[in-house]
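ingest -> validate -> predict -> emit
validate: passed (alphabet ok, no gaps, 234 aa)
predict: started
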Amino acid sequence: MSAARTTVAERVRLTAAALTLAGAAAGALLPPLAAWLLGLPWSPVDGPARLVTSVPEPWRTGGAAAVGLLGGLALGLLAAHEALTVRVSDADVELDVRDAPRTFTRAGTGLAFRDAGRLVLLAPDGTELAREKSGLNPQRLAAAFTAHGWPWADGDPYGADFRRWVRGAAGLPAGADALFAARERALGAKGDARDARELRAELARLGLVVREESTRQYWRHATPVAPSPDTSGG
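emit:
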């Protein structure tokens, strides 16, 4: 193992720049698109299209491009805010996302793996420590963990144990249904991602591991992680 710290990060600057330029380009294309829509026998957005074409040039094209640029910039900043940076050492790993870095010790972590585009850390008792959306290169991520002697799996070894949540399902502890119902609302179209994360933590305290696909939630009981072979070289 190495005493150095390995950092794996997304290319947020490139992503932000690409989104900003794409927004500006989309904005510049809005006036000709509006004119084309008005030439159709019927348009579902006739009112907005007439509003766009009523603005005189050069304000029409320049203003649309500026609005698109600002929209792209906002999306770029949001992408940068949501991007995950992972810093791994022999002793701990830091997950930095949403300007709220969290550190997990090697001794307190039983397994790390990627599951459906998310980085997952499990405690030795099988409870979930973290589940963060990750656009990081899978090979670089795996190499960072294994280079420092962390137990790593290429996928979720407990994936087959998940069951879809339905109210009143057998095997759920008391209070879980109410938490799942609240989390389902949080995962909705107008949901609150922060609320969903907090409710996941509440379910973890009940010994449940949770994952979702859109608003569909799946659960399993926490299973102690099997000890991994010593990769420290000692």
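The chain is about 40% helix and 20% strand.
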